[in-house]
Amino acid sequence: MAGSLQVAQFPCLSDNYGYLIHDATTGETAAVDTPDAAAYKQELEKRGWTLTHILNTHHHNDHVGGNSELKTEGVRVYGPANDGRIPGMDNPLSDSDTLTFGGAEAIVIDVGGHTHGHIAFYLPEEKTAFVGDSLFSLGCGRMFEGTAPQFWSSLKRLRDLPDDTIIYCAHEYTESNARYAMSVEPGNELLVKRVEEIKAKRSRGEPTVPSLLGEEKLTNPFLRGDISDEIKSNVGATSDDDDATIFLKIRQGKDNFRG
């Protein structure tokens, strides 16, 4: 992390990442989502940290599945206010709400689209955002519950953050995302270079997460539909399509992609 907090990243389930944020001064420790309680308990024990907060981005089981087991006395659960499916939620949060954690402040960003009630946690002093399944490295989440205008607005809110923001997403999907990105913007030299770096990392068994937002802005097709004529052409966008419709065509292309 860029500031005073420590972040522990560890694999969970088949392709999730678990995250713990720790403030050494106060001793507070937050879990960002809870894919697997056992993995979180193991990481907490290994580091000698005590859980005090659970920060849920959305209700899917691979993000809240460990809530009930991890919510012991003194642990408070924070999650999206407009989603009643967060187990044990104590503090519902909406867009622009703030949460003080240790010596840092987290700003809640509404990133609905993957689900209706999906939030991200942005820590400006730490130059860090935990985005769940809204934005991935070279991708974005499937649109299970939201609408294209909603999801596109959410991604623009993330895109507006500073380039040096570190993006912690919830899954190791980057190789698959890279194949699709190359199919819609093969002329992007920065993307070509990044894909080679991703392949090398994965061949060594290294994570491709986190990533820098500035890099995503230059290479992630889901942030570039209103910018790249090449992407527009390759997804069949027309001059009559607004930006949300172009985003929808990019998303549908990925849903049907078999590359």
Question: Overview of this structure, please?
Answer:
The structure is a single chain. With 259 residues, the chain is of the alpha/beta class. It is built from nine helices and 14 strands. The strands form three sheets. The chain has a six-stranded mixed beta sheet, with helices on one face. A six-stranded mixed beta sheet has the order 7-8-9-10-13-14. Helix 4 (148-159) packs across helix 9. It is globular and about 55 Å long. The model has no long low-confidence stretch (mean pLDDT 97).
Brief rundown of the structure:
The chain has 259 residues and is α/β, with parallel strands linked by helices. 32% of the residues lie in helices and 23% in strands. The protein has nine helices and 14 strands.
Any descriptors?
23% strand; six-stranded mixed β-sheet; single chain; 259 residues; 32% helix; alpha/beta; 9 helices
In terms of topology, how is this protein built?
Blueprint: E1 6-12, E2 16-22, E3 29-32, H1 37-47, E4 53-55, H2 61-64, H3 67-70, E5 76-80, E6 91-93, E7 98-101, E8 104-110, E9 119-123, E10 128-132, E11 135-136, E12 139-140, H4 148-159, E13 166-169, H5 174-184, H6 189-203, E14 211-212, H7 213-219, H8 229-234, H9 243-255
Parallel strand pairs: 3-4, 4-5, 5-6, 10-13
Antiparallel strand pairs: 1-2, 2-3, 7-8, 8-9, 9-10, 11-12, 13-14
